[in-house]
């Protein structure tokens, strides 16, 4: 018998039976109640009608008309189902929630039928009980539903979600704190993924089996795996397609191998999950990330499973949040956090820059601004906002002082240590003022708190999470500092530009794709991902000096206008997504153009810029980024949209008539009446993996040495202080469990557990995952030491 979290499972005949049906790929998920006459469904129907009356039918262009053979089908709206652990504003710890909140709305506007499926972490006031209950992995799962702006929002209801994080929604979805994932996350997200697949055919308003699933990050990586290994293998969902969207490759869902048994997956899927790395620890509640997890690698390998890897190998299409990030994560083990080779084996990954929420962040309607503004009144508006901001921060109210702001997590990923190191020289630039807003590691919070006193009249630091101040800074600052060491897409620079505030950015990830040197911002080059480098602080100062020189010249006014005039909404990213999904659904193989949009296979629009930046900044010299596109109103990723490419090829651009899409929300009727329990259910089998031979170092997918021990770069690499074989005596339960954890070394022998901690270590092995890494790694003080925290974002997401 095994204890996992607060639940107990016993290997049983039932499990054996599930194993027995594994080969047929059916059974084990069965509807318990499907009560169509229930109040909930009546209410749902009324709500749906109200929504439909409110929502005008969408029109959209026939974007693929130019592609031979698909003209007749492109007018057909797609059925798109996003499966994600977060959906903003209901649940959010970062960009993942923003994407699944904003993108579906734009896809609906383009005429598609879109559903999101996420766990029900809280008693959302706007979601009603559908009364549909199914059996998944022996558990009863209910579905709640709301419909907003034409998007069906479905919530998977089970105590593993609501009871686990209730009252902590939005911050503790994956564990009690960063770097300490819930022990049963393997079962939680297995249940979630399986319920999500079943939802599309169990719910009366669902699309049925013919749809495109968009899985997001590791938490929903089982969706593509299940589709391939279980459903399609048994003739179900045969036309369904799956996309895996990677929002931050640092989060991979690495767990000890034994976790596979509780996921009730067919043994045939095990190979896809199999992974090994050099880190004898995974970060869970039982073995959380600690400061001492910084020790160098031992050279041994440890057998694990990796959810994201399995998802990458199974999905029909891979997408990430910017073209440049796509290039970075395909390039080498450091960029791809040891999954670069897996991505390359799939032919690369497409990058589409995220949009931003232009309702919450809108200078025209911003309730925190005394004088709202738009692009026609931006100079007056920003002047008023700056005056209010300087007064609020206790800085001299001086319109001629170039004011640089920073908003974000006080962690190495965001480069706050570089700003702090650069501060004395930066503040020596005539008239420069600096404002920092953020929360994060205690050591950095202390330093940020102190700068108001230390640099009185020149700089101010505010350590809190303050939406009002974030809005005031975004509007009132002249420049927004974004010196991230890595940034898959980044929101801060988008917000800043939308308010006419000029970003000063590191040349990484989505910052390269969204900020154009000398046009909409300034680039400081790529920063050292290993440690705090004096050259980086110098680069930051030099770039800010350049910006300050431009400030108050006509060029600066142009840049402000360029920034605020762009369309940074979800509209264009949605157009790009549409193109990719249409290609996938209609099976269009537009070889050359598709390849050009996929990193690893061809150049990205941003690649020219990246190359220039990389070359120039290697020497920390001035960065010149080729500007190939017109500003305002565009950014490079959009130009690489496959549907845009199609439009360029002709017919769509030549005036194909827009078509009217069916009313939004009107999914086709379910295959069977809701009252009829469907039987075509599948699933998993409880079969534990067939024991695998021990991983040999040579067979390891990625040599641990490929990731430097001190890499800031995300981490696959949860560096651990006490490798089992050299473990010092345990000092506390958690680290003892880590030291004695269930890693299996290269020779297949688990590191010996310290006496007395075996019991703690065992559950960790059953369900352990890498935790997020912004926990305790800072050693901080006056010279901030870049720790593993950036690299060790680990497998869940931050629990901010
Ligand atoms: P992350 O990697 O943290 O998701 P992003 O740039 O994508 O970084 O988004 C960060 C978001 O959090 C932005 O909307 C930013 O305004 C907000 N934010 C970060 N820190 C603070 C803070 N201390 N107060 C208010 N808002 C904050």
Automatic annotation (TrEMBL):
SUPFAM superfamilies cross-referenced by the UniProt entry: UDP-Glycosyltransferase/glycogen phosphorylase
Keyword Plastid attached: yes
A single GO BP: starch biosynthetic process
One cellular component (GO) term of this entry: chloroplast
Region annotation Disordered: where it falls in the sequence: 682-701, 753-800
Residue intervals of the Starch synthase catalytic domain: 80-344
GO MF annotation: an example: alpha-1,4-glucan glucosyltransferase (UDP-glucose donor) activity
Keyword field: Amyloplast, Chloroplast, Glycosyltransferase, Plastid, Starch biosynthesis, Transferase
Family: Belongs to the glycosyltransferase 1 family. Bacterial/plant glycogen synthase subfamily.
Protein's recorded name: Starch synthase, chloroplastic/amyloplastic
């Amino acid at each position: 018998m095994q204890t996992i979290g607060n639940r107990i499972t016993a290997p049983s005949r039932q499990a054996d039976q599930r194993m027995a049906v594994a080969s047929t790929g059916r059974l084990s998920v069965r509807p318990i109640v499907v009560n169509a006459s229930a109040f909930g469904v009546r209410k749902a129907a009324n709500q749906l009608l109200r929504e439909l009356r409110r929502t005008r039918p969408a029109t959209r262009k026939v974007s693929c008309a130019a592609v031979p053979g698909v003209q007749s089908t492109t007018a057909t709206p797609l059925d798109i189902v996003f499966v994600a652990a977060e959906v903003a504003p209901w649940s959010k710890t970062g960009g993942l929630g923003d994407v699944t909140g904003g993108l579906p709305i734009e896809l609906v506007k383009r005429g598609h039928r879109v559903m999101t499926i996420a766990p029900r972490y809280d008693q959302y006031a706007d979601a009603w009980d559908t009364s549909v209950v199914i059996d998944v992995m022996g558990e009863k799962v209910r579905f709640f539903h709301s419909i907003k702006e034409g998007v069906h929002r479905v919530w998977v209801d089970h105590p593993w979600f609501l009871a686990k994080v209730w009252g902590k929604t939005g911050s503790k979805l994956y564990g009690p704190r960063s770097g300490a994932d819930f022990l049963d996350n393997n079962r939680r997200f297995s249940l979630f993924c399986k319920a999500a697949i079943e939802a599309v055919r169990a719910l009366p308003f669902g699309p049925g089996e013919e749809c495109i699933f968009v899985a997001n990050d590791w938490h929903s990586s089982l969706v593509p795996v299940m589709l391939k290994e279980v459903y399609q293998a048994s003739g179900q969902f045969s036309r369904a397609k799956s996309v895996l969207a990677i929002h931050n490759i640092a989060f991979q869902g690495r767990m000890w191998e034994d976790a596979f048994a509780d996921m009730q997956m067919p043994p045939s899927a095990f190979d896809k999950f199999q992974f090994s790395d050099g880190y004898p620890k995974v970060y869970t509640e039982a073995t959380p990330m600690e400061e001492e997890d910084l020790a160098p690698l031992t050279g041994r390998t440890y057998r694990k499973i990796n959810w994201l890897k399995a998802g990458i190998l199974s999905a029909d299409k891979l997408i990430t949040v910017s073209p440049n990030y796509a290039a970075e994560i395909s390039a080498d083990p450091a960029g791809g956090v040891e999954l670069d080779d897996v991505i390359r084996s799939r032919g690369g990954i497409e990058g589409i820059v995220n949009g931003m929420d232009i309702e919450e962040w809108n200078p025209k309607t911003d309730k925190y601004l005394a004088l709202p503004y738009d692009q026609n009144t931006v100079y007056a508006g920003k002047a008023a906002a700056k005056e209010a901001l300087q007064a609020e921060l206790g800085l001299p109210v001086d319109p001629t002082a170039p004011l640089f702001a920073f908003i974000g997590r006080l962690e190495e990923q965001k480069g706050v240590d570089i700003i702090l190191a650069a501060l004395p020289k930066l503040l020596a630039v005539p008239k420069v003022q600096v404002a920092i807003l953020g929360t994060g590691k205690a050591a950095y919070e202390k330093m940020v708190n102190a700068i108001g006193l230390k640099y009185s009249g020149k700089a101010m630091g505010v350590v809190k999470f303050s939406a009002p101040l974030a809005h005031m800074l975004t509007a009132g600052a002249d420049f927004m500092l974004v010196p991230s060491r890595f940034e898959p897409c980044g929101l801060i620079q988008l917000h800043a530009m939308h308010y006419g505030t000029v970003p000063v950015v590191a040349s990484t990830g989505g910052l390269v794709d969204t900020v154009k040197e000398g046009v909409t911002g300034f680039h400081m080059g790529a920063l050292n991902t290993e440690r705090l480098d004096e050259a980086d602080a110098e680069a930051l100062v030099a770039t800010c000096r350049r910006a300050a020189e431009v400030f108050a010249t006509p060029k600066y006014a142009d840049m402000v206008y360029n920034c605020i005039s762009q369309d940074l909404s979800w509209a264009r990213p949605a157009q790009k997504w549409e193109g990719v999904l249409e290609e996938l659904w209609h099976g269009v193989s537009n070889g050359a153009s598709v390849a050009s949009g996929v990193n690893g296979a061809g150049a990205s629009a941003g690649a020219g810029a990246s190359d220039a930046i990389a070359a120039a900044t290697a020497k920390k010299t001035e960065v010149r980024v080729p500007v190939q596109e017109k500003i305002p109103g565009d950014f490079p990723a959009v130009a690489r949209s496959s549907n845009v490419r199609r439009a360029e090829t002709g017919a769509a651009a030549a005036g194909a008539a827009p078509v009217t899409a069916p009313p939004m929300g009107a999914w086709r009727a379910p295959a069977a009446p809701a009252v009829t329990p469907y039987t075509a259910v599948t699933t998993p089998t409880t079969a534990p993996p067939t024991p695998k031979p021990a991983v040999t170092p040579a067979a390891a997918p990625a040599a641990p040495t490929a990731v430097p021990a001190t890499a800031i770069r995300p981490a696959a690499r949860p560096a651990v202080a006490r490798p089992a074989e050299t473990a010092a005596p345990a000092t506390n339960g958690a680290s003892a469990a880590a030291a004695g954890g269930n890693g299996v070394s290269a020779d297949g022998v688990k590191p010996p557990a310290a006496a007395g901690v075996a019991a703690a270590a065992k559950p960790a092995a059953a369900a352990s995952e890498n935790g997020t890494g912004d926990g305790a790694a800072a050693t901080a003080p006056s010279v901030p030491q870049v720790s593993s925290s950036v690299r060790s974002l680990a497998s869940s997401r931050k629990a901010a």
